Request: fold
Amino acid sequence: MSLPDHVKAAAAREANLLLQEVDGLSAVVIATIDGFDVAHAAKGDIEASRIAAMTSSVSAIGEAVSHEASLGKYRSIAIDTENGLAILQAVPRKDVPLVLNLIANGKSMMAQVMYRAKQSAKTLEEA
Reply:
């Protein structure tokens, strides 16, 4: 199923807005659940298509874990590393489900990144 143009435009706006507003954010990739890049913004060079594909794989693992552990529907995954973090946030659209991937450096605050990811997911879900 194809993503409507107005949703692609909303995704591009959200990616750029997140990059501008969230301290420490270095990249935003918005992907379809099957791993295709819809929109991205970055402060440096990134391979958005590779990140989109990995986002899909990690999201599938999150869904499997939440199902097997009877935790309900998967919503997000946090990957915390020594140099930063990545937050993957589900966007459960009815037409084409999306996943937000926010990549941040070590100066960012995980709670702030997660909060903004949830806000953006809601915006994209309703677009």
